[in-house]
Amino acid sequence: MQSVLEMITKQLLIHNGRQLGTLLGLVLVISVFAFLSPYFLTLSNLVNITQQTSINAIMAVGMTFVIITAGIDLSVGSIMAFSGIILADSIQNGIAEPIAIIIGLSVGTICGLSNGILISYGKLPPFIATLGMMSVARGAALLYSQGRPISGFTEEFRFLATGQIIGIPTSVWIMISLYVIAYILLNKTVLGRYTYAIGGNETAANLSGINTKLFKTIVYGISGLLSASAAVILTARLNSAQPIAGIMYELDAIAAVVIGGTSLLGGEGKISGTLIGALIMGVLRNGLNLMGVSSFIQQIVIGLVIILAVLIDMSLKKRRN
Amino acid sequence: MEENTVLIMSRIRKEFQGVIALSDVNFVLKKGEIHVLLGENGAGKSTLVKILSGAYQMTNGEIFLFNKQVYIKSPGQAQELGIGIIYQELNLIPYLTAAENIFLGREITNKFGIIDKKGAIESSKKILKELGSEINCDIPVINFGIAQQQMIEVAKALSLDAKILIMDEPTSALSDTEVKQLFKMIRDLKQRGVSVIYISHRLDELFEIGDRVTVLRDGVVVGTKDISETTKTELIKMMVNRELTEHFPKRNVLIGEEILRVENLSKKNGITNINFTLKRSEVLGIAGLLGSGRTELARAIFGIDKYDSGNIYLRRKLQKIKSPKDAINQRIGFITEDRKSQGLVLILSVKENISLTNLTSISGFGFINSKEEKKEAEEFINRLKIKTSTLDQKVIYLSGGNQQKVVLAKWLSKKADIFIFDEPTRGIDVAGKVEIYNLINQLAEEGVGIIMISSELPEILGMSDRIIVMNNKKIAVEIPIKSASQELIMKYAIGA
Prior knowledge:
- The complex is a heterodimer of chains A (about 325) and B (about 500).
- Chain A has about 325 residues and is mostly helical.
- Helices cover about 80% and strands about 0% of the residues of chain A.
- A two-stranded antiparallel ribbon of chain A has the order 1-4. In chain A, strands 2-3 form a two-stranded antiparallel ribbon.
- In chain A, about 50% of the residues are buried.
- Chain B is an alpha/beta fold.
């Protein structure tokens, strides 16, 4: 009996060792703050954390796909701002809200697909293509809105962020559904398998008859779509779409993915890790805020956590090999 | 030691993870001689000179330079000892000038640490002039052709006061006139007392430029001869004359109908006017030296590099193959030369690699049928006897032979019936090789048509029904297996 248990534990560690490590990190961070602040573990604060995390967590879903293909997407923050502006403007111009949401999501997807086309067919390095898009989408958001935020929405629309279903904020429900969908896509579908194969060895994938260019384009399209989804929630939460929203969000998304154990070299990574990574960042921000730590120091702490996570990851990998 | 002996390499042994690359090699270089190293691909020529140039460390042996024992631990140290090497792939930095390249790593500076550009250009010009070249030392080397770049490499070696110059296949990318220039320069160097170790497998060249020749085969020195006292026939015999001890299982099968026909296939800088047919149950061996166009031919048929002209007929029907996907849909399988970089996704599992070519047909609405996937992987693991702990083992942890079987399974799962093997047993141990040979035979018996590209002559002779020898991007000859011999193949491969 004991040996069976040992075997199961061993298998769990082999296949999910990295995830368990990250989870342990999350538990550790939560314990520290629970000890330091009596308010931290209250239900309302925990709900608060997940709500605050949802935007970054959603963008990190797309980023996980991209990074598994050994790519990078620097344009997610700008795409979010641009899709948000288009969405808000459409609503203000009297377009029905569901249609306006579809328009907003389409804009984000098109931006993402453009990244993918430039990378796959234009053979640009992902860093350059998405760096360009980061600037183009930001400029487009500012131009379209004349640099002004677009504010004031109906209660129905705002429900997407501020509403609650059985005590849990709608945005958190949306985040959870997106993670479930992403999990299924990555683990159960052809698209997911090709994503891992392209990141693991693009040449071999291509020689196996996979249309690597098409699938890479789709992956960047997914990243754009998820940035636009984050835009919907952010606009609903703030009751306002801002052309300067989401600056530096790309770095938070990358950080969540990396803390979650996805290798920047591609081919490896789990979506569950990304969620834990995003939560670690959310918990850190929230906890440090509760303790009145200045936002300057918060930046330093988060930076150090990213470095630490990757250092631990690399030393674990070395030992395994 | 004789007066004019520059270098003695004595009983050199080199192992790579248990594989013996050189065994008991003795090599003597005289002052001012041009000494040719000759041998097939993988005979050990490059390994030997890399030990001399400090790129590899020998496992055993002694090196004496000018009567003194030396221990060469790094390329830098070899340079200091006066050993210069010019690799086949030149090592210049493309956007630096000739002068900057020549003095790379030991820049001439003034007392403020500022590089003396003028001084470097003057010195470079002087050295190049001695070599009979007057190229502009102040523009990036990327503007020069291969021959001139080679000249710059030689100048670099000489500026380091090289007494021994190693040249690895220097003529492989040169035109005839450039070769003449190069030979003139080599003779000049000889006059100045520099000793040259010259690696080549072009026999004609060797008789034109060489003084002595040492022939290597399978990591052993077969012999050293004065060029004036030997013949091409004798050298070819020395290169290939090994006993066929490896075990090649017999195959008893009737060759079937035509399955692949290639007509006038050409691709610029790749292959010229290739014609051949392949029949069911047939193993067509393709021999030839590196760069003869063998791999390029395979890549063209598999749609990786688009061919410029010519036709490919599959099962007697004209087909356009524009991408690997087209080739795969036509049930062609390609077992690439380098399975790690082209054949497998190393960090994915055995199961995931096997299903990669065939994923869409075991999926519905984009969802993978994992039961079907598992079943198929298990079937191939049993059928090909792939040694792996589980289906989910990452292929990176498998042995070379088992990795190769996973590649095979990939194509079998796609029901390919034309297989192109490029160096099917490279880096695989003897037992693994025999297993691969058995699988090739099994495929042939099932009616599959097989093209087998190989540098190993015993393998070509042991496995093929028919042999094509390629040389200089063309088919040099087609030989029926009955009249084939190592000497004959090598003769055509080196264009003698």
